[in-house]
Amino acid sequence: MDDRISILNFDHVYQNQSFYVREKYDWIDLSDIPNTNLFCEQDALKRIAARLKERPPSFLRFIGSGNYHYITYLFLSRIQKPFSLVLIDHHTDTLPSPSDALISCGSWVLQSLQHLPMLKRVLIIGADTDGYKHIPPSIAKKVKIMTKYEPLTAQTDITGHIDTDSVYISIDKDVLSKKEAITSWDQGTLTLKALANILKAIFQSKKVEGVDVCGEYPMNPSNEYTKLGKQAALKNNRANQFILDKVKLYFYSHNKKLTPALFQKANDLSQQI
User: Matching InterPro entries, A to Z (predicted)?
Assistant: First the structure.
């Protein structure tokens, strides 16, 4: 794992957070590319892909608002071996796109299964019970949903549904309860501690090809100094710090590269949650 993380600047939300400032991070400005919010045109997606290709590769990426979750499609397209996607999300993101010329935050999982032959299976953790209603029959055999109501207590509960040795993990913080994070979408009930257990189980048994995180509360000059805006920035910064530390902890410990300082930092943060 490269120590460098990627901060994708679509919507300026990370300017109100500090979890990354003591890390080696690559700030990738994408805010000048039009037609990217919620729905992304193919020309815009090509421009984003070209800009990302120019930057150093990273294992952990922070995307911004869930409106840009479709960027995960680009990260998945780089994987050149059979793999599974573990999507930790309150939504399935398997709705048909309104146009073949568009990819959206609600369609990217479907389009990934349709266009990326190395993606063999998708495990969605934390979606609501009606999630299967949004899974088209054409991909139903490749998708497993573990709803927010299912207990996730054993490692086999999760990894038993993953057939490949390699996985990619994508986290949308709308899977978390409002006590843990604030997003602009309806949210689930997962706690950060439960999320940590899920990540730990995956890292212990699978080769993780990469991780990305989205689900920020959109910020603009009219709301960043409001009570809700400040609360969202504070909670999401704390959640992002927790996820960052846990990903580093589990990666290094699994690869026998864990330092005492890293272990202590992650352990201290866990005690605060």
Answer: Ureohydrolase, Ureohydrolase_dom_sf
Q: DSSP states of 135-172 as a string? A: S-GGGGGGEEEEETTS---SHHHHHTT--SSEEEEEEE
What's the rounded Cα separation, in Å, for the pair 233 and 18?
Answer: 10
Q: Are 158 and 200 in contact (CB under 8 A)?
A: no
| Tens place of pLDDT per residue across the chain (273 aa) | 567 899 999 989 999 999 999 999 999 999 999 999 999 999 999 999 999 999 988 999 999 999 999 999 999 999 999 999 999 999 999 999 989 899 999 999 999 999 999 999 999 999 988 888 899 999 999 999 998 666 654 445 788 889 999 999 999 999 999 999 999 899 999 999 999 999 999 999 999 999 999 999 988 777 777 888 899 999 999 999 999 999 999 988 766 554 555 555 555 555 555
CATH number of the CATH domain containing 188: 3.40.800.10
Closest CA to 59 of 33, 92, 95, 23: 23
pTM score, whole prediction:
0.91
For the sheet with 143-147, list strands across it: 25-29, 5-9, 60-65, 207-216, 166-172, 83-88, 119-127, 143-147
**What CA–CA distance (Å, rounded) separates 120 from 139?**
10
Say if CB 79 and CB 166 are below 8 A apart: yes
> Which residues constitute the domain of residue 107?
5-272
The total of structural domains in the chain comes to: 1
